[in-house]
Design brief:
This protein has 12 helices and 11 strands. It has a 9-stranded mixed beta sheet, with helices on both faces. The longest helix has 19 residues. It is globular, with a radius of gyration of 18 Å.
Length: 309
Amino acid sequence: MKKPIIMDCDPGHDDALALLLAFASDELDVKAVTTVGGNQTSDKTLNNAMRVLSYAGITDVPVAPGASHPLIRELQIAPEVHGESGLEGPELPEPSFASFGKSAIELMEKVIMSSEEKITLVPTGPLTNIATLLLTIPESKDRIERISLMGGSAVGGNWTPAAEFNILVDPEAADLVFQSGIPITMCGLDVTHKAQIYDDEIEAIRSQGGKVSVMVAELLDFFAKFHKKLGFEGSPLHDPCAVAWLIKPELFTSKHLHVDIETKGEFTSGATVVDYRGVTGKDPNTDVVYDLERKAFIQLLMDSFKKYD
């Protein structure tokens, strides 16, 4: 039986790939897509999610807009990574369907509370929507199977020396989520920086020939420009890791550890403080993913994109 999930995202190039991977999977049943301000402003991330799904022919799953800004902070965005639209590279037409008539939180509540099975949440952006759901619909907590998220890092950040972007944007939301007691899988920079795709693999995706595969290759062409400037040999595919872990967890290596979120530090705000040695005495609350079988991961992506063609 397929695992029912909600994708909560801020597309973003790697979010787009994560969406396509989730919808192509025989293991997952995407019940809804919600968006949040993060890689770009909330109006752009909503439009980007709907453009990608429209282009792939996915028009029967509700998509709803969520938070336009963090719980208590100003929104930070990442146009230097994802461009002015948040999804630069391919020419994508405007969405071919309308968004869900209500908010992301209302859509999440509808899906979670009406489902016979518990729902798994897959956030690949800031955790504002998830925290807001838990604050406003507390009874939803017992109906959530797990949260498989992209965010955080055990050692060092990518937006500050200490913090990864998704957690840094809304650390207060992340703190609420990590303290919720819901089982969490954290695909942070420890694993996603190992989940790189290289130029020859991008060309292999392009050579598959279908319009979705070509679109993915064009997204990755743009995405690679930023990472090559930073000295990466390839491009880290952050967000697809949170989806791939649900599809093929055997490709990944993790440890069950306690994670706290730093919300007040002058230099460390947004850091995910991972207790690798058990020095705090706190019970583990997170499966911290730190390694993967990279080639098998890339093959999973390639096979998934080919299904659309």
